């Protein structure tokens, strides 16, 4: 249903409708749950190392590419050749690199913290839009940007007192959010004429192929069948790839085209809520200070979205 709905989404600046907000909440739940799924893939339910971060990143991209391969084969010819490099960059920067960064980060970072830091996407989206794509801004957006970044710095500093926090891992998440923001701007400014399904399917298949080849050298099947939590871990990774990447990326690309890059990236308002809830269910330690700084980040994101940006003439 999500894929067929996105087929008809075209580039537009229309005011978001009710269906767009519903899709935004669905995406937030899906991506907010991705952090705990990565954790299960890494450590199962026993806390013992299962799949490596590289294996999970590669499987996530490979499986997502396979799921959307039929659409890629049917629609790739509709994409102008001059735009294929941008499609590849969306697959690389918007999917492949963040997949590896997030799983690497979560080897030493609580899933709830990763979800909170993911809120930086709209802030970086605005920065890139202004710096690269000549998008004008309002003073309230700059204030929001500064507040959001201050909240992120505060969260990182507060988190260093927690046993579930690791500074270098947190910085990997920050880098991943910058990659997402770059991809959002590429889609909005360079690929407005490419249908959502075609863009998601082709970009994922492009980066899935090398990951598939690399996985052939790994003992994925043996780990799945012989380890205590192998099957649970594999099911988590498959769900992460098929739903959290393949289907969700199609819908996300469609939201960018039909509304705006800023609105679509606002999915990160709600992602921390679901990520934190899953972390709490899994026994992760959070204090009111962590939640306070997460709220500061989201407040900054709200202000960033308060003013409608205009492209400079």
Provide keyphrases for this structure:
two-stranded antiparallel sheet, mainly alpha, disordered N terminus, 313 residues, 2 strands, single chain
3D structure, described in words:
The chain is mainly alpha-helical. It has one domain (38-307). 73% of the residues lie in helices and 1% in strands. It is built from 14 helices and two strands, in the order H-H-H-H-H-H-E-H-H-H-H-H-H-H-H-E. It has helices spanning 2-6, 18-43, 53-75, 84-105, 111-117, 121-131, 139-159, 167-190, 196-215, 220-226, 230-258, 261-265, 271-281, 288-304; strands at residues 135-136, 310-311. It has a two-stranded antiparallel sheet with strand order 1-2. It is globular, with a radius of gyration of 19 Å. Mean pLDDT is 84; it is low at 1-12 and 309-313.
Percentage of residues in DSSP E strands = under 5%
Radius of gyration: 19 Å
What is the SS-derived class?
A: mainly alpha
Give the CA-CA distance, first to last residue: 39 Å
Number of β-strand runs: 2
- H/E order of the elements? HHHHHHEHHHHHHHHE
Tally of individual domains: 1
Structure annotation, total helices: 14
- Global mean pLDDT: 84
Helix content: over 70%
The description of the largest β-sheet is:
2 strands, antiparallel
- Poorly predicted regions are 1-12, 309-313
Q: What's the arrangement of strands in the largest beta sheet?
A: 1-2
Tell the overall outline.
globular
